[in-house]
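Side project, low priority. Logging it here so it doesn't get lost.
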Amino acid sequence: MKYGSLSEEGRWISLKEMKQGTFLVCIVRLAPSIPKFLYRPNLHSRRNNLTSVIWKIVSAGSSPTPDVFTHQLLLHRLSPTPPSPPSAAPPSGDLSFAAKKPLFHSNHFVWQLLPVALRRILSKSVRTPLIKLIRYLGTLKSYVRNRGRPEGSIAEGYLAEECLKFCSLYLADYVETKFNQSTRNDDTTIGSTFTLDVFTNSGYPLGKAIATKFDDETLKKAHQYVLFNCHHVQSYIDEHREILNLSYSGLPPHQIERMHSESFASWFAKHIEDTNLPQDDPVSNDLKSLARGPNFIGIQYAKFVSNGFRFHTKEVERKRKTQNCGVIVRATTSSYSSIRDQNPVSSELDYYGIFKNVIELDYGGGRRVVLFECDWVSKGKRLKLDDDGFVLANFTNVKRHNEPYILASQAMQVFYVEDPVDCNWHVIITTDA
C-alpha cells in the first residue's frame, strides 16, 4: 500500500483509504495543516496554498501512473502559485502543457475546476464533500482581518454575518440588502402588451445594435423555429399534421414530419389569411403578424443577458480570458430506429452549444423575437460520459446544425473546461444563475 504525506507534521493518509470513502479520516488528518494554509502571513508560500494540500493528496505514491501524472500537471496549471511539477516523467503521456502559463489567477476558479482535475483520482463520494469543505474554508478565510488573531477574527466575522442576516429579515421591505438586491444579470422585464409568449421580452442586449438585412435561408429557419415554439400556434400545428397524415397515408412517418416542417409556415400564413379572425382580439392581431412573417431587416447583437446569465459570442471572447459562450437547451425530439419505423419515440435531449450570434426579428407593431444562433452537439460521437459521470463534448470542426436557432428565453449557461488528456474534448460544467 502506498502512502502520501498531507503535512509536514508527519500526518499520513493512503490514497486507497480516500477512494474507499473514509472521508472523516482524511479531514481529521488534514485539520492540523489547515490553519497554516489559511492564516500564515506569507499567503504566497507553497505551504499556505490550498492547491499544495491537494497536490500532496494527488502525489501519493513514489511512482505515479500516467493518468495521475496528467492530473498533477493540470493542478500545476490551475494553481495561482503552482508548486513545482513532478520531477519523474510518467511511463507515457504528453508533457507539453506542463510549461504553459497557469489557467487562472483566482482561487475561486481553482475550487470550481478541482472536481475536473480530481475526477479520475478520487471517487465522487470523497470528491464532493471535499470540495464543499474547501469552499467553506474560503468563506472563513474571508473573515480574517487580523492575521495575528485569526480565531478571534473568524468569530467576530461569523457573529457579524449572523446579526446582519437576522436584522435584514425585518428590513427587507424597506431597505435593499444583499439578500434582496438585484443580481448583476437581473433580466426582470415589465409585462408585455402582447398576448403571444414569443413576443414577450426575455432579457436585454448589451453593446451596440447592428442593423442587418437577413438572407432568405436565415429568415426561413428562424421564422420556422418561432412558429414551432409558440404555444398559441400548437393547435394549428396539430391540424396541419393531421391533414398531411390523411393526404399521404402511404408515406413513412419521418417523411411526413419532414414535409410538415418545410410546408407549415406557408400553410399557416394562408390559413390565417383565409380565416375570419376577430378584429379587436389581441390574440388574433398577434397571430396575423406572426403569420405574415418577419421583416427582412433585423438587428444583430454580440452580447445578451437572459435568464440571469450573461452570454457573449465566441468572436467576442477571442480577446478575453473569461468564458460566457456555453449554451445548453433541453428539447423534446422524436427518434426513429429506421426508415420503416412506424412508432417514433419522443424523448428529451440536452443540446450543448457554442454561442455565435444574436438576431432580433421584427414582426411589425413593436413585436420582436430574440433568437440565439449556436453550433450544437447532442447525442452521438461528439458527446460521451466518462466513468465518473462527467459529460464531455467535442466541438472540433462541428457542422452547422439544421436548426441552429433557439429562443433567448430557452437558453441556459454551461462552461467548457479542456480535458487534460485530450485537448479536443471539453468537460461540461453546469452552473446556476
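Brief comment: The chain has two domains: 3-142, 197-430.
Revisit when time allows.
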